[in-house]
Batch of 2 targets.
Target 1
Amino acid sequence: MRLINHKPGRPGALLLAALPFVVLFVAYAVASDIRLTANPQDKLLPAPSTILDTAHRLFTEPDRRSKEILLWNDTFASLARLLGGVGISAALSLVLGLAIGLLPYARSLLSSFVAVISMVPPLALLPILFIVFGLGELSKVVLIVIGITPFMTRDLAQRVMEIPKEQIVKAQTLGASTSVIALRVALPQILPRLISNMRLSLGSAWLFLIAAEAVASNVGLGYRIFLVRRYLAMDVILTYVIWITLLAFVIDWALKTTSRRAFPWMEAGL
Amino acid sequence: MSFVSVRNVWQRYGDRSILERVSVSVDEGEFISIVGASGCGKSTFLRMLLAEERPYKGEISIDGGDTAVEPNRERGVVFQKYSVFPHMTVRDNLIAGESFEQPFGRLRGAARTEAAARADAMLERIGLNHVADQFPAALSGGMQQRLAIGQAMTARPRILLLDEPFGALDPGTRLQMHDFLMELRDETNMTVFMVTHDLQEGFKLGDRVLVFDKPRWDPDDPGLFGATITYDFDARNKGMPYQDILDQYPSLAGA
């Protein structure tokens, strides 16, 4: 039988899905053990048990000076920036995407502009953003917005243009005005796409957030990682990395579930 | 004065002539089948009736009105596919026929309840009441087309335009759809234009069959001349002419 026709059973599939995680963990544990045997003071690859202890301490024990648990402070600060940036981008790209996709005048005016802007490397603009918007929250949110809005806008505009012409004509024969076509025909059909765009752009949003926090901040997950880097506190960094990964995964899962619940017509055909 | 009148309509895309000298007048309640080879401009003609395209030259008027510049509620349409809105339930698709002309495309309160009642009556009529709360993707091709026709009728258009409405259906479903369409038409006396590839279908359903073809042909430049209506058959009484001449001229009976 051909390789493409071999399919794993259900237990086999679960086992295979778990395998890369197990391999990664074992490889890390072995490497860590080798280094720690050679030098018990080694800080580069802390033992999994050390990371667990550190994680426990970071999540529960307050800072001695501020009496606050720093990890939670960092988490809330970063999530506020991230979700703020992604939310603003989603709203902006929705409005722009609908306009570009539906209105020939808006398309002529904006589509080349958005295409060019989406090529500007956002991180290269970071110094300018810090100068223009200051070192506070605004510049970090603006970086995320500049980084992901053009790409989301282009994709949504494309999706609006892919709505069959027949539907748009049909809506007109039912007496729909431009705004009704936008709100009742185009918008509902691109909302699922908007959510999948948000899922895709969360990766870049995290990247921009951590970069901005690393450069200038006094709280945030990225700030903390780059702060403790000076002390080679790998156990703290790894805890934060795992925590960020977990957060990203949960947000992604939540968006996916929302999409599935909110748009039953997407799957009615399957 | 005829109900729909098309006077000396020309259409061209760039240098390519598509239609030329198309003139036809249609009375209210007539069912017009439009047939012709691929690329003969019959779909272009339908798009101009729909006002999705404006003629290069000439006039198309419904009930004496001006040539329309964009599609409106005077014209209902059913395409071969994509005619219904995939994100709305079957019932909402019918309600859309009434609600889309509202400022926000929605009806509220009593108006909505009444529209829903009318939609349910239409669902009963087109035999889709058992799937009222499902989405179109869950429906078969024939059911989707019945929904599309019902949706178009809900908006009460002056003329109904059908662009190969049954082209994607299997032969059995197609025959059912013919019966359905004829019943609906007998009830409403709607003026219908139907583009079809199926000659038999065209003659079976139509009162008149218009044939589009190119009467002039330049072998060096196929795009030079456009197509026009080359035949205008009377398809009533199974296509045999003058079957009702005695009704029109009773004096002939004595001769």
Note: Residues 107 and 142 of chain A are 24 Å apart (CA to CA).
Target 2
Amino acid sequence: MTLEELYRLLRTGHIQTQGIVDTLHEPLIVIDKAFTVCNANPAFYRTFGTDPDGTIGHSLFDLGNGQWDIPELRTLLSDVVPKASAIVGYQVNHDFPGLGRRSMCVTARQLAIPGNNSTQMLVVFEDVTDRQKAEARKDILIAETRHRMKNLIATVKVIARQTQVAGVTGAEYRDRFLGRVDALLIAQDFISANGSNADLAALVEQCLSPVAGTRTDLVASPAVSLSENQVLPLSMVLHELAVNALKYGALAGDGVIRVAWSTELDEARERLVLQWQEVGGPPVTPPTHTGFGTRLIDYSIKAEGGSAIFHHDPSGLRVAITLPLQQ
Amino acid sequence: MASSSIESTPFEVLIVEDEYLIGMELAQILEDSGYRVIGPIATVSAAVERIERHAPNACILDVNLRGEISAPVADCLKARHVPFFLSSGYKQETINQEPAFDGVANIGKPAKPEQLVSALQALLKA
């Protein structure tokens, strides 16, 4: 190999290595054991808005407005070369000029040079501000999900406790309980699919079909959008009415459930007026006791500021439900 | 269960709870025991407004109300010396992070009815 060839070989290697360092997005610098900057890559100048003149030959602790002059970081760095140790992910929170408040992770290692016990360190800066924000958001989301799970289980326990046990078989209890849990899940799914834009017609259809199948007559009615908080109460009410119809009302015979609604103004506030009517079933007799189902209907509607009025017409149960709508 | 004094002038207990079925059961348990139930109220602002307008004798407070921590409600209750306890599924260390809940017991969620009633009796006697 001629000297010329050796020179080319070394030069190619050097250019390639420099290219890698220059391409890296992470700001990095090389400092000696007195913390003087020997080298920096373009990402460093770009990130901290500085240039070679203001960086090379200066102490790391004098850079910028002295943002790295932290006693703890100084102590850690002074150990890197003599103890061949490393600093991994030391976090510095600082208001960087032109960058704003950022969290930087500092990693420092003795520079690896084969066969040479280097006295220089490679210091890499990683901006973890966005990652930390994303992680914080994820933590909040996880905590929120856990909270919802617990509330959901607590709600299921309420349903288990409140579903009638006296005078029913185990199988009847199970079916009744699972029916209510299903109604709860339908409401949950509906909320996650539709958010705060819950269409009443779709909700009525989804709540009634598991119990009533096709034996519903949904009269064409104006489009009504429910608030997220109204979905669960109304789902439970519709479920209870449908189960009741199956046990004692129109669905116990050959009848159908007819549902229609309109909106009206009540003291300048729009409210929903929903008519539940059972037709073609066996003669109706008013119930002799009020169970959880009746209480649930009454409570749910009143809690939302509405009313549920039952008319036990011999020809079929009629229920008039009113519910204030979100402005 | 209810003493004669409760029957003559029922204690007013405010329920602050955003899960409506849980609130419904709480209300029923308390009513069955002779208390007068206010609520359930589901939001921080509505609860604070209600307490400021007329303080109840006691309160059962959920910690997370539609994504909002109920600390302002706790502060409001403390300022008016209204005894209360928490009804929350949160772990104690999570609750402890909020100074407004210092010294406030959590009966858990859902609490057993008899636990709820005895905790409330103890609260009103104290």
Note: Residues 196-324 of chain A form a domain with the Heat Shock Protein 90 fold (CATH 3.30.565.10).
